[in-house]
C-alpha cells in the first residue's frame, strides 16, 4: 500500500508533463508571452550571468554558453531563468568587443510560468565601451520605435538596462543599455500572419502599400543595408487576408540616421557615406508615392518626438537626428519634386 501514493504522484507527473507538452505545441493556449511581461516597464532591468570571457572570446563561433538571466522587479520578487546565450549577427560579431546576443530560454520553463513558448530573444548591446557607442545604440532603438509609429507590421523592441556578470568572477561586472527585439514567430502571430520561408527564393510579388512604406522609411533613415530577394535584414510575412508578402525590417546600425562609426555603404552602391540617401525601391518608378508621403507627414510630429523627448539621448545627438530627418521632410513636402528625385535616383544629403 505504500506504493500507492507514489503511483498517484507518478500518474500526476505524467499528466502534468503531457499538459505542458500540449501547451508548448500550441502558443494560442497562453494569454501572455515573456516579451509582453518585459514590456511592462519603460526600461527593464536585467542581470545576465555567464562565462563572459569564453562567450566573448568565441564570438565568431556559433556555440551557446549556459547562463542565468534575472529580471529585477522593484515591487515583487526577482525572476531568474536558466538560459543559453551566444553572439549573433554577421558584421557586428566581427567589429564589436561586445556583440549582439541571442538568448534562448527553455520552453518548459516558460510554460511552467504560464508564458507562451517563444523561447528566443535578440539582445542588441553596446558593441564597444564609451558614450558614443551608447548613443549609437539608443539611436538604433529609436529607429525601431519610428517604424512602430508608422505601422504595426513591425518588430517591437524593449529598452533594457543590463548588468553583465562573469560566472567565474574574472571579468568585472558592467552595466549598459541595450534593447530586446520581439521574437519573429511572436510578431507573426500577433499580426495573424506566418513567416515566409527564406528558402523560397523566387519573389515576384510584394504587398505594394507596405513595400512603398518600407522603402520610403529606409530612405528617410538613410539605410541601404537590406535586400528584398535575399531577405537580408528583413522578414517576409504572409498575411492571411493577403497573398503578397509584407516586408518587416530590422537591423538599422548602418543607417545614416544612426551614423555608427563603423558603418559604410556597399561598394557597389553609388554613395560614399551612409549619410547619403539612396532610394532602393525596385517597383515601377511611375508609381505615385503621394499617399505614402502623406502618412509620413501626418506622423512627422510623433516621429520627431521619439528622439527629441528622450532623456537618454544627448542634446547634440538630438540635433543631429533632427537635422537629418528635416532634409527628408523638406523633400516630401513637394510630392512632384520628391517623385522626380527618387525616380532619378538622385542622392539627398543630410
What does this 3D model show about the protein?
The chain contains twelve helices and twelve strands. The protein is of the alpha+beta class. Strands 1-2-3-4-5-7-6 form a seven-stranded mixed β-barrel. β9 and β10 form a beta hairpin. 36% of the residues are buried. The model has no long low-confidence stretch (mean pLDDT 88).
Task: Please supply descriptive tags for the structure shown above.
single chain; 350 residues; alpha+beta; 2 domains; 7-stranded mixed beta barrel; 3-stranded antiparallel sheet
Secondary structure layout plus pairing:
Layout: H1 3-24, H2 34-38, E1 44-50, H3 52-57, E2 65-72, E3 79-87, H4 91-95, E4 101-105, H5 107-112, E5 120-124, H6 131-150, E6 157-166, E7 174-181, H7 184-190, E8 193-195, H8 208-221, E9 234-239, E10 246-249, E11 276-277, H9 290-298, H10 300-308, H11 315-332, H12 335-344, E12 348-349
Helix pairs in contact: 6-10, 10-11
Amino acid at each position: 500500500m505504500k506504493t500507492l501514493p507514489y503511483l498517484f504522484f507518478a500518474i500526476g507527473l505524467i499528466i502534468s508533463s503531457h499538459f505542458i507538452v500540449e501547451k508548448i505545441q500550441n502558443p494560442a493556449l497562453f494569454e501572455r508571452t515573456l516579451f509582453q511581461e518585459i514590456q511592462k516597464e519603460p526600461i527593464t532591468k536585467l542581470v545576465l550571468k555567464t562565462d563572459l570571457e569564453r562567450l566573448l572570446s568565441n564570438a565568431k563561433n556559433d556555440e551557446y554558453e549556459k547562463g542565468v538571466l534575472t529580471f529585477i522587479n522593484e515591487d515583487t520578487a526577482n525572476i531568474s531563468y536558466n538560459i543559453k546565450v551566444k553572439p549573433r549577427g554577421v558584421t557586428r560579431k566581427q567589429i564589436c568587443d561586445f556583440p549582439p546576443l541571442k538568448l534562448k530560454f527553455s520552453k518548459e520553463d516558460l510554460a511552467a510560468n504560464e508564458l507562451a513558448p517563444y523561447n528566443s530573444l535578440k539582445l542588441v548591446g553596446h558593441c564597444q565601451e564609451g558614450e558614443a557607442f551608447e548613443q549609437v545604440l539608443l539611436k538604433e532603438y529609436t529607429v525601431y520605435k519610428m517604424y512602430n509609429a508608422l505601422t504595426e507590421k513591425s518588430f517591437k523592441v524593449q529598452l533594457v538596462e543590463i548588468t553583465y556578470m562573469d560566472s567565474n568572477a574574472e571579468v568585472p561586472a558592467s552595466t549598459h543599455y541595450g534593447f530586446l527585439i520581439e521574437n519573429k514567430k511572436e510578431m507573426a502571430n500577433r499580426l495573424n500572419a506566418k513567416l515566409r520561408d527564406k528558402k523560397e527564393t523566387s519573389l515576384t510579388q510584394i504587398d505594394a502599400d507596405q513595400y512603398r512604406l518600407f522603402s520610403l522609411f529606409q530612405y528617410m533613415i538613410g539605410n541601404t543595408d537590406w535586400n528584398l530577394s535575399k531577405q537580408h535584414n528583413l522578414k517576409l510575412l504572409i498575411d492571411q487576408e493577403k497573398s503578397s508578402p509584407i516586408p518587416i525590417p530590422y537591423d538599422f546600425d548602418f543607417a545614416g540616421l544612426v551614423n555608427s562609426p563603423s558603418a559604410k555603404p556597399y561598394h557597389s552602391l553609388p554613395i560614399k557615406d551612409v549619410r547619403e540617401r539612396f532610394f532602393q525601391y525596385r517597383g515601377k518608378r511611375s508609381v505615385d508615392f503621394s499617399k505614402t508621403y502623406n502618412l509620413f507627414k501626418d506622423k512627422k510630429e510623433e516621429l520627431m518626438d521619439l528622439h527629441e523627448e528622450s532623456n537618454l539621448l544627448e542634446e547634440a545627438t538630438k540635433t543631429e537626428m533632427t537635422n537629418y530627418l528635416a532634409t527628408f521632410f523638406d523633400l516630401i513636402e513637394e510630392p512632384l519634386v520628391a517623385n522626380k528625385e527618387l525616380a532619378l535616383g538622385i542622392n539627398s544629403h543630410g
